[in-house]
Amino acid sequence: MVSHYKRKFEARFLILCCLVLGSIHSVHASVVDTIKQVTPSVVAIGIKTPLQYQGSKVLGTGFAVGDGSYVVTNYHVVSEPLAVDIVQFYVVLSGTGQEVNEIKAEVLAIDPIHDIAILKMDSELPPLKMASSTLLDVGTDIAFTGFPIGAVLGLYPATHKGSIAAITPDAIPAQNADLLTLNMLKRLKQPSLIYQLDATAFPGNSGSPVYDQKTGKVVGIINKVIVKDTKESALSNPTGISYAVPVEKIKSLAQKHNVDL
């Protein structure tokens, strides 16, 4: 009788283990599929000076939206004025490895306060879908894809997984008053809420889409990485403190400029 119950227990335990392992495999497969779905829409943002350099200088990351001819990135990625005494323009770099396509782009809209810019391309790429404007709960699993070290060795997008660690005002204190910029002062007076992420981003991730691990829909955009010392040291000694602007701010800027997301 004891042997019968033991075999029955072992059988049920084995079934339970199979169900748990199957569930874990299903979740893993889902995240892998989501990353594959998102990656073709993620691009590098560069600046090209054809009379001086053959290649392009990579400034940050971006992602295609709308009808595929628009790219969202950070304002600080494209904030430097283009040269007026020589041919120079922004380019969107898509592809993988050494097989890179350069697409000419122009800045269409900017939101310096929330660090967002929208570029218009001469071509189209697979666009990402936007998630609801409702703020995510703390603990929600997210991922972001971008180019943390630029494109020195070619275009190799990297994906980092994490979660929403906190929802906090968009106002990081400066070490002293001399370091406060006009935009920082505006944010201190009327701070909006941003995501603090439990995931490590690097300077090259600026403009990376933050998306739901299950659906691939964009929930925000990486815009700040706390750096201890220099930009270079962030690669070898990251703080692990990263921030993202919620998708609501992207939608708002797009709506003002008649970009249908």
UniProtKB/TrEMBL annotation:
Residues making up the signal peptide according to the UniProt record: 1-29
Protein name: Serine protease
Gene3D superfamilies: Trypsin-like serine proteases
Keyword hit for Cell wall biogenesis/degradation: no
Entry's family note: Belongs to the peptidase S1C family.
InterPro entries assigned: Chloro_Bact_Ser_Proteases, Peptidase_S1_PA, Peptidase_S1_PA_chymotrypsin
Keywords: Hydrolase, Protease, Signal
UniProt GO MF annotations: peptidase activity
GO biological process, one term: proteolysis
